[in-house]
Every structure is written in C-alpha cells, then in structure tokens.
Amino acid sequence: RMFGRRRDGTLAKVAPYRRMMPFLMRGRNESVVYFEQRLDLKKATTWIETRNTRTGQRATMFHLVLYALARVLYERPHLNRFIAGKRIFDRRGVFLTFAAKKAFRDDAPLATVKRGFAKDESFDAMVAALTTDIKVAKSDAISKVDKELGFFLKLPGFILSPAVSLLRWLDARGLAPKALIGDDPMYTSAFVANLGSLGIDAAYHHLYEYGNCPLFVTVGRIDAQTHEVVIKYSYDERVEDGFYAATALGLLRTWIEDPESWIDAARS
Predict the structure, then answer these.
(1) Burial of 196 (0-12, 13-18, 19+ CB in 10 A)
(2) What Cα–Cα distance (Å) separates residue 12 from each residue in 69, 164, 188?
(3) Which of 21, 114, 174, 227 has its CA 20 to 30 A from that of 128?
(4) pLDDT digits (tens, 9 = 90+) for 7-17
C-alpha cells in the first residue's frame, strides 16, 4: 500500500504537472477554489410534490441534491479523486456525508451520516434508505464514530495528540486501519450541508485537512417567491482543473433543475 495502493482508492493516472501540485500546494485550504450556483427549482418543486403524492414518500429537495451529486460523481469521476501522502487517488465508490441537528435547539448536537451511493440505485430506494439512516442518526443510539471518539477522548492529551499524528502518518502511507477510516465522515467524496433546513442561506465552508474530502457543498434556503436556491462549493483544485469541475457542475444544474428528464426517463 505504501507504493500507491490503498483500501479506499487506487493511484490516479494524471499528467506530471498535476502530480506535482500536492507538493507545491500542501493543504486543502491552500488549494481551495470557491464557486456559487443559483438554481431555478420551479420544475423540481412540482416534480417532487407530484412524486410524493404518487408514492407516499416524503422526498425533499435535499434528497434530489444528494442523488444528483452522487450521479455526477459517477459521470465525472475525476471529481471523486482525493489527495493522500501528496499523491492523487481515484476513490473506490461514491460516498456523501451530511449532518442534521438532532433537534431544533441551540444546544442540540449534530448527527452525521456517511453513506455509500451505488451507481444503479433508484431515487425511491435512496429516499427510503436515507429516511431510515436519518432516523437512526437522530435517535439516542450511540453511533460507531461516537464510540470511537469517546474511547480516544478518554486518553490524556499527551497521548491523544501523538495518536492522532500517528493516524495521519499511517493514512498518508495507506496503512490506516479500515476500522478507523471506513465509517469516518471525513473520508468521503463530498460533505453536503443543508443550511436551508435551518432557514439560512448557503455559506462557503473550509475544507477539512483531516481525512480526504476534497469537496464541501452548502445548500441554502429556497426563496419562496422565486423558487431559487443558492448552492456554494469549496473545492480542492489539486484533484482536477476548474474547467472539468465547471462542466460537472453544469451537469448537476441540469439534473437538479429538471429531474423528470433523467430520473423518470430511467424508469421508463
């Protein structure tokens, strides 16, 4: 694994100048590019309402954003790359992480969900599965990640700090235990924050240096009059150039604004 093999990815074949970029720009926030989209959701809103009436599900616009983003990462796989140990890897699978407050109180904790998205998964199946995932995350059950954090936080600081450094060192060489990073929400294709569910606008978010997530997406509140929403992206440009990313986001816009054209077409 120290020579280009990892449990979560394979060494990407990229041009020499791109292989050099992680050495010149060492951190994700040194390499971050920000992008904003304003989407017209008139068609999508009608489509979701009609679909919910027909199926009895409670799909939301956030479900559609997650589903479209996962599909884009399959269609434009270079966006699903990540940096580890100053090398660029193609990720195995598409994973999205998102967080939801367990209750609408200032002191309520965040429930974080990391989920794999299969390429052939239907929209209905994803909505049903996420409904269950979110219900479990918001319950009083202690997640695997919380259990791991609870264990490490029992360690004194003079042990915890070098332990975290050791994990980073192992991860850079593809040697981090799967038990530690498999469910870790920061080892993901993208982190998606639904700020609109809190009634606030989208905001640019930093990228986490820990883990290997190269993309942070925030979804703002939907304007009740115009049916528009702003989505903001923070993107590690070392994984691929801006033109490729812009093309992918153009595809994302098309699919979110007109879901009937591709989701319903796939069922017929």
Answers:
(1) buried
(2) 21, 27, 17
(3) 227
(4) 899 999 999 99
CA–CA distance, 134 with 97 (Å, rounded to integer):
12
Cβ atoms of 24 and 4 within 8 Å: the answer is no
CB 130 within 8 A of CB 63: yes
Residue 51 CA, chain-centre distance (Å), reads 25
173 token code pair: 């060489």
Tokens 């008139």 belong to 42
Task: Please give the C-alpha separations between residue 96 and each of 9, 21, 161, 185, in angstroms, as whole numbers.
Answer: 16, 25, 28, 8
Q: Which class for 34: exposed (0-12), middle (13-18), buried (19 or more C-beta within 10 A)?
A: exposed
53, 114, 122, 123, 149 from 143: Cα distances, Å: 33, 11, 26, 26, 10
Q: If you count DSSP H runs as helices and E runs as strands, how many of each does the chain have, helices first? A: 9, 9
* Residue 171 CA: distances (Å) to CA of 14, 79, 133, 166, 187: 21, 20, 27, 8, 11
Above 90 in pLDDT, residue 177?
A: no
d(CA 18, CA 133): 37
Q: Distance between CA 88 and CA 239 in Å, rounded?
A: 7
Residue 268 confidence class, pLDDT cut points 50, 70, 90: very low
Residue pLDDT, tens place only, 75-133: 999 999 999 999 999 999 999 999 876 555 666 667 789 999 999 999 999 999 998 88
